[in-house]
Amino acid sequence: MRVRRRRRVVVPLLVAALLAALWFGRPLYGGAFDFVRDHTTDPEAAPPTGKSASSEAPGMPAAAAFDGVSNRAWAPGEPGPGAELVATFDHPVRLLKVIVSPGTSGKPEDFLAHGRPERLTFRVVGADGKESDVAIRLRDQPGPQTFDLRHTDVREVRIRIDSVYAPADQPPAIAEVEFFRGR
């Protein structure tokens, strides 16, 4: 009889203690939940709401890099590295990956007629203002190329062209940039 009374008291106390530990321990293992969720669900598109660039070639605006089609492209006003493409989000997002389609088109003859970025730096700016850089190297071939870009609470991504493939007299073009976030 005493054993049953103890169980009636001890079991609810243990359950309450476990729930309290889970609740107050969230900062310690919150990343584990995101990790499992990110690897068990498909990411969804995270189109930026703001699109701008340090410069634009005639007929090749910054918005073309985020329009969902690869037959229009953004290119800076000048050949060579150094130009930036900027994407902003209305509210913080947890980014998982980015797909970049370099050049002006998926057609080989059009692709080779313009400059193409070789190395890009993604400067990820969080809601708290902290910045983090992710460097990627693109293959010199048409079509989408996928890269991990795992950051939380992202408000802005600045994409800087660090180096370019030939031809050196043509501005490097980016046909499409697609961001994907966790659910």
Please render the helix and strand layout as text.
Layout: H1 2-24, H2 26-40, E1 44-45, E2 50-53, E3 84-102, H3 108-113, E4 116-126, E5 131-137, E6 145-165, E7 174-181
Antiparallel strand pairs: 1-7, 2-3, 3-6, 3-7, 4-5, 4-6
Task: Describe the 3D structure.
The protein is α+β, with helices and mostly antiparallel strands. 24% of the residues lie in helices and 39% in strands. The chain contains 3 helices and 7 strands; from the N terminus they run ααβββαββββ. Strands 1, 2, 3, 4, 5, 6 and 7 form a 7-stranded antiparallel beta sheet that branches. The longest helix has 23 residues, at 2-24. The N and C termini lie far apart (50 Å).
Strand content: 35-45%
Structure class: alpha+beta
Terminal CA distance reads 50 Å
Number of strands: 7
Instruction: Please give the largest β-sheet.
Output: 7 strands, antiparallel
Unreliable parts? none
Figure out the total of helices: 3
Radius of gyration: 23 Å
Write the H/E string, N to C: HHEEEHEEEE
Percent in helix:
10-25%
How would you sum up the global shape? elongated
Rounded mean pLDDT score = 88
Q: How would you summarize what this structure contains?
A:
The protein has 183 residues and is of the alpha+beta class. Helix content is 24%, strand content 39%. Strands 1, 2, 3, 4, 5, 6 and 7 form a seven-stranded antiparallel β-sheet that branches.
Q: What descriptive keywords fit this protein?
A:
seven-stranded antiparallel beta sheet; alpha+beta; 24% helix; 183 residues
